[in-house]
Amino acid sequence: MDSTASARTMTHQAPRADVDIATTREGTPGGTFMRQFWTAVGVSTDVERGRAKPIRIMGNDYTLYRGHSGHAQVIDSRCPHRGAPMHLGWVEEDAIRCVYHGWTFDCDGACVDQPAEEASYKDKVRIGTYPTREHLGIIFCFFGTGAEPAFPPFPEPPGEGVIDVWPVYEVPCNYLQCFENTMDEVHVAFTHAPGGSHAKLSQDLPIITAEETDWGLMRYGRRKSGNVRHTLHYAPNIVRVIVPPLSGMNGVGGWPEIIFSFTPVDDERCLWIITSKVYVSGDDVAKFHAQLAELNRLRADAPPVLDVVRDIWSGKLAYADVTHPDLAVVQDIAVQAGQGVIEDRASEFLGRSDAAIVVWRRILRRELQLIAQGEPRKVWSTPPDHITPALGI
Amino acid sequence: MDSTASARTMTHQAPRADVDIATTREGTPGGTFMRQFWTAVGVSTDVERGRAKPIRIMGNDYTLYRGHSGHAQVIDSRCPHRGAPMHLGWVEEDAIRCVYHGWTFDCDGACVDQPAEEASYKDKVRIGTYPTREHLGIIFCFFGTGAEPAFPPFPEPPGEGVIDVWPVYEVPCNYLQCFENTMDEVHVAFTHAPGGSHAKLSQDLPIITAEETDWGLMRYGRRKSGNVRHTLHYAPNIVRVIVPPLSGMNGVGGWPEIIFSFTPVDDERCLWIITSKVYVSGDDVAKFHAQLAELNRLRADAPPVLDVVRDIWSGKLAYADVTHPDLAVVQDIAVQAGQGVIEDRASEFLGRSDAAIVVWRRILRRELQLIAQGEPRKVWSTPPDHITPALGI
Amino acid sequence: MDSTASARTMTHQAPRADVDIATTREGTPGGTFMRQFWTAVGVSTDVERGRAKPIRIMGNDYTLYRGHSGHAQVIDSRCPHRGAPMHLGWVEEDAIRCVYHGWTFDCDGACVDQPAEEASYKDKVRIGTYPTREHLGIIFCFFGTGAEPAFPPFPEPPGEGVIDVWPVYEVPCNYLQCFENTMDEVHVAFTHAPGGSHAKLSQDLPIITAEETDWGLMRYGRRKSGNVRHTLHYAPNIVRVIVPPLSGMNGVGGWPEIIFSFTPVDDERCLWIITSKVYVSGDDVAKFHAQLAELNRLRADAPPVLDVVRDIWSGKLAYADVTHPDLAVVQDIAVQAGQGVIEDRASEFLGRSDAAIVVWRRILRRELQLIAQGEPRKVWSTPPDHITPALGI
Questions:
Q1: What is the DSSP letter of C45?
Q2: Distance CA A344, CA A264 (A)
Q3: Interface test with A, best of B349, B352, B361 (most A CBs within 10 A)
Q4: Chains in contact with A, where contact requires at least 3 CB pairs less than 8 Å apart
Q5: Over pLDDT 70: what percentage of chain B?
Q6: How far apart are alpha carbons A112 and A94 in whole angstroms?
Q7: How are the residues of chain A apportioned to helix, strand and coil, as percentages rounded to the nearest 5?
């Protein structure tokens, strides 16, 4: 099998990997790399004023709460006193009081009340807090050391339209294979063939190329017509792309621009956090919202996406036969998380269609090796307003 | 952060711990310590005459059965022949017959029948058995080596009244943080604030002190009024205390005395095994039982306690909004098991309210270190009748 | 306890085991031993023409599909390109196309289409395939190296009758203790006492003997009457035996001959794959099918077998009280998987009733040790037509 041996060498164009490019655990090179950037941790509607909820991001647990002023704040998950979960407590103004003994912390982490202790003790205790801001309906948090990067981390898509934030999906696999999937446009002609939602993108198969930029990766998909589709991959885990309307939208709202973050919950799970600009105005805004309400009714009546995915995996449901209002999401999760919880990249036979994935992995390995060796690494720029995706079909 | 460093030293008042105070696995110092005492393994109504059930205590599996004489007996979980679960078998008089090949063992562990084997073979086989006795509606078992301690392990609370045995709860965390919670009366003003069941204990916050006794720990809670609440902590895992009536009891039965064992299932789970003396007599006995029947009806219709706790943990339910006939139990489990399966005691900032916990940990560490070093250790006494809890509010 | 020590020596009649006789993982001696034979992987009705499903056998994942010609084929579970699950794809003639990028493989493993790649690349890629054949309603696969053994792996039971393939059960324990159970006829008098389905086999207890053959193990059960029951144990995991009708059959169809494979899913689970010859002809065929349809109606309305088993294990249901259309299956799984996920053979007290188990373990240890040492091992024969089971009661 000499031919196989030579095929395998294609997977080794990148420098020898002695770093784990899939992990984002704190303290690993991948964890340090990811924590240079603002991380999408949820959508703004996740947490109302005066409420708190638990979140888990890149393997660590946090409490996210929204003070009565409207400010959202991420803090450590546990009270430093005896480890009770902070999200069980009470939001008081923009501070939060622990459910166990009433210790209270403000947004900066200072302990401002300790009912059963002597007055001076509270000055000795702090809780960890993390810069938290919101943009286009998404909550971002900075988990890194040093100064926080510029905010917002990317521009709003230009033009008149409506911001539509999608439901958040928790997907049972590593984030990186999902991010890689967005660099691989050939898949839509096969993965999304059932249901036909992506038929216009599947009339012919594009030739993929990609180049590193100051802010991430620009990917091109050249069609037989000569048209070229442009897709932006913002470092480290966000794609900005023009996509077909979901099958449940019946074409209403046209092709929106979506900004899609693949946020690691831990190395085995990720959140799909998605916002979009829908190019509707005037009467079409109401039509769009009506159709979206209809889609949400269908979603509420449909079996949960992950239940359908598990039935596909077990063989109970045939992939080609599935119908679902979120069919494209079902398909993407079935295939991407179907690659394994963490895809075995050592067993691949990469091809021409994987050109952009190869470029991104080379960037990741380079940066992670620099981090591992303690050497100076790339300073990433905030994506500029004028570089935008192009439909290109 | 010098102040933090100095705060942390508070957690190190106890001698340096090179022992694991949370584990009770057989063969560890903690396991040996716990096995000096009678262990509550369930309630008497768990097992009827002629029936058997599986139990798991401190990481080991056993079969508990009740012979036709009424005697309850704990034996090893598996038949020594080929490992079939003994609780699947048949109780015959006070012996038990294995479901696989009919080998039969009496209460002393002797093999008394082996239908398919030659007659002499049964003399070569025994099953492990453990002294088993009952007191106040609770089944106790002695898993230690040497002579069994005096029985009962503690006196019945004095005075006229009714013994009321509670439902057993299985709680998904280590037993020790639950036992510690009973030493920490400040928590009731916060943890049990929603629902108001403990309002009378929360009018002001007590100053906690504690002292070691021959039989465990006596804890005091001094109020601004000068009243002092007395609570008994019987070594190694039982609390005796006067508590408010459960919210579902609407005050009927008044403030009972409860005796509450935190029995390790294994290091990650524990049973809450509770009996109580309710101070009712005459017509009030019937009123109490009627209200208890009503509470049990409400319990039967309510979602399982642990389902509610998991919804609180996941953020689906807000702690402050929960209603449940077992609200105080929901609250206690949400907070105590919310500290983590085994609380990370190395990350605490202990305070004045933790004074009794600090004393008990010091005792535990001392005893476990003596066991680890093979040195003589404390001989614990049976708690005397005349030392009783005081309400003290 | 000298007597115990001498009893324990009975378990050591076989040569010292330095091999793990329970594992079948690839690369272990047990895995190599098992892969010498055709392995039953499912029943023919599991997969229709044009469909694919996932299977897991001896710790490895595969895709099983049936081409449009009717040929069933086992291949590797994942596409060699980027690891997508092959069973999500499309069966085209007797080939299968991957859902992710359309790579297509034929029954021999050749890549015959790769839509987005250059033409020559497909010659460099193959998928693993495994010889797959069918016999008596069961699908067999050969996972070994070298030439495949003779097929079919055992003869059809002689005489006029109907082949009846049973439902497949997935059982949560290692396959070997299930295979051993079939060598242990004494168990039926106890394990199957409730319900009475095996009463005729339980009137007295047989004396068990066994001898190694060219094709496996022949086991004898001699009754007080002098009658001898013959049961065939085909290496490595198949039993052929005459059994009573299932309780749900009410005796219709009489005592069938069953051929029963204990197929490892992995070391912790196995499939019970069973086919049978029912000795009915003429009008009795229709009666048999009518009663079987009735049994299947009862099965559809009954709680799942494993749910009942778990309720028995937890103590919620009493073993002796269970009623179920598949009662004997419930009983067998409760007892055999109740021995532990992998029975602890080091803790047994084997007796006279275990004589056949002792012989088979000695064979297994001998063969696995030869494999471990790289020495020539037994060449097993295909079971001959003329050696058949005898009822012998």
A1: G
A2: 18
A3: B349
A4: B, C
A5: 96
A6: 12
A7: 30, 25, 45
Per CB-CB distance under 8 Å, the chain C contacts of B53 are 315
- Structural contact between residues B191 and B353, judged by C-beta atoms closer than 8 angstroms: no
Q: Best residue in A63, A88, A105, A122 to probe B by mutation, most B CBs within 10 Å? A: A88
CA distance C118 to chain B (A): 49
CA distance B348 to B369: 22
Which H/E stretch holds residue A362? helix A355-373
Nearest beta carbon to residue A313 from set C54, C100, C101: C54
pLDDT in tens, B204-226: 899 999 999 999 999 999 999 99
Give the chains touching B; criterion: ≥3 Cβ pairs < 8 Å.
A, C
The DSSP-derived string for A169-193 is EEESS-HHHHHHHTT-GGGHHHHTT
Which tens digit of pLDDT belongs to each residue from B259-287?
A: 999 999 999 999 999 999 999 999 999 99
B191 vs A contacts (CB less than 8 Å) = 99-100
Beta-carbon contacts of C4 under 8 Å, excluding residues fewer than 6 positions away, are: B124, B125, B126
Residues written for chain B = 393
CB-based contact B101 C312, cutoff 8 Å: no
Residues C278, C254: Cα–Cα separation, whole Å? 7
Contact between B106 and B125 under an 8 Å Cβ cutoff? The reply is no
Q: Looking at B42-46, B55-59, C12-16, C72-76, which range is the least confident one?
A: C12-16
Chain B residues touching residue C344 (CB < 8 angstroms) = 83
Residue in C63, C82, C100, C271 to test binding to A, most A beta-carbons within 10 Å = C82
Q: Is the pLDDT of residue B4 over 60?
A: no
Written as six digits, the tokens of A318 are 């045939």
Neighbours of chain C (3+ CB pairs under 8 A): A, B
Q: Which of A116-125, A240-249, B291-300 has the lowest mean pLDDT?
A: A240-249
Q: Which of B85, A93, A143 is nearest to C310 (CA)?
A: B85
pLDDT at A2: 36
Instruction: Judge whether C297 and C160 are in contact, CB under 8 Å.
Output: no
Could you report the per-residue pLDDT of A148-160, keeping only the tens digit for each? 999 999 999 999 9
Q: Please indicate whether, in this complex, the C-beta atoms of C100 and A344 are within 8 angstroms of each other.
A: no
Cα–Cα nearest to C152, from C281, C220, C238, C70: C238
Contact B343 A82 (CB under 8 A): yes
Please check the confidence at residue C75 and state whether its pLDDT lies above 90.
yes
And the tokens for A205? Answer: 């198969």
Token pair 């898509």 in the structure block, residue: A157
Q: What letters, b where the CB count within 10 A reaches 16 and e where it falls short, cover C116-155?
A: bbeeebbebbbbebbbbbbbbbbbbbbbbeeeebeebbbb
> How far apart, in whole angstroms, are the C-alpha atoms of residue B172 and residue B215?
28
- Quick one: pLDDT band at residue C246, thresholds 50, 70, 90? confident
Q: Which residue of C8, C184, C190, C312 is the best one to mutate when testing the B interface, meaning the one whose CB has the most B CBs within 10 A? A: C190
Q: Which residues of A touch B (CB under 8 A)?
A: 51-54, 78, 80-85, 87-90, 97-102, 114-118, 121, 123-126
Q: How many CB pairs under 8 A join A and B?
A: 88
Q: Quick: pLDDT tens for A94-149.
A: 999 999 999 999 999 999 999 999 999 999 999 999 999 999 999 999 999 989 99
Residue B11 pLDDT:
44
ipTM: 0.93
Asked if C347 and B123 come within 8 Å (Cβ–Cβ), the reply is: no
Closest CB from B53, B117, B124 relative to C352 = B117
- State the CB neighbour count (10 A cutoff) for residue C15: 12
Q: Sign of the C-alpha dihedral, residues B172, B176, B182, B185?
A: negative
